[in-house]
């Protein structure tokens, strides 16, 4: 009898211990889940990374452009390496962006020194202390009586004179900048205006509010509360939290927008009103890449009659415009079918005509499937297109083959509508 009672007591004790262990394990799991829910994975990546202090010049970065316009390390001769530090993607990205800002300044220097362009600040009546943007003009941009070329890049980090920052860093200056277009245009007697549609605001460090109350995270916890917290969390959990709770912080900034140039579309209209429309050129030409094509369509919607009178031809490269979403009139569609051509990313050979899903303007292959390369790959075709349209403009009695073909295509597209 005593043996049976002892076994029963042992069984009861064993069950209680098992229940207590299960409860303790459940509490640990719940605590760990609670901790993980409060940890920002992006913040974890910031812990223990090197300071976000990067070189300010190409020389300090130990990079330079060679004679072929390729960015190479000055000591090893190797191309740019993005993963400079393994497992530190955010730091590598910040380093890449810092180099990109230096590249932007380098392109500005090339525009001024190699292309002899001058900087014109916007707004034209800006006060000394207000935010400003700028564009670049050739010396004859406003007084050339014959031809004017206007260049508009896509959206993003690219600034005046650039098609794609990635191409400049990883390929060369020719494919990534507008310099070849500017040089060719000047050789063929064009004046040139280089737009800067993404320079829409001045970014400044946000001033701290002296009257703001510190947040609980910024206040030192009382010793008793801290001790209770550490006791509750346990050593393992506390060490885990301590390891990741102080990531490297970045400065807070705010944007002060530039008057009359708050968006790429507004910038394009502003430059048209204050510069392009006032130029003496009889024929104006546009090269518009990606979002730049949308900006041109927006310009047509707001300045249709002016654009039709002045613009001879528009070369788009992988344009993202939409006449339907932008609610363009049918008259704009008709004009674009005659005066525009869009070189789009495609595996087909360069200049291969492509079917239009929407009959806005002729589409041909740029000879590459890479969006950012479409401008460079269609470089020669664009200037040939301009020459043919100009010949047709100057002699209506002898329309170019291209114009005749486009008229035939347009008639067919109208039949399909």
TrEMBL record:
Identify the residues that the record assigns to the Arb2 domain, covering every copy.
54-350
An example molecular function term from Gene Ontology annotations? siRNA binding
Could you tell me the superkingdom of the organism this chain comes from? Eukaryota
Q: Which GO terms describe its cellular component?
A: nucleus
**GO biological process: what's one of them?**
regulatory ncRNA-mediated heterochromatin formation
According to the UniProt entry, where is the signal peptide? 1-22
Basic and acidic residues compositional bias, start-end? 222-254
Keywords (alphabetical) are: Signal
Q: Offer one Pfam family short name for this entry.
A: Arb2
The answer to whether UniProt assigns keyword Signal to this entry is: yes
**Region: Disordered, residue numbers:** 205-254, 393-417
Biased composition annotated in UniProt, kind: Polar residues = 400-410
| Name of the protein in question | Cotranscriptional regulator ARB2A homolog isoform X1
Q: Which organism is it from?
A: Chanos chanos (Milkfish)
Q: What is the lineage of its organism?
A: Eukaryota, Metazoa, Chordata, Craniata, Vertebrata
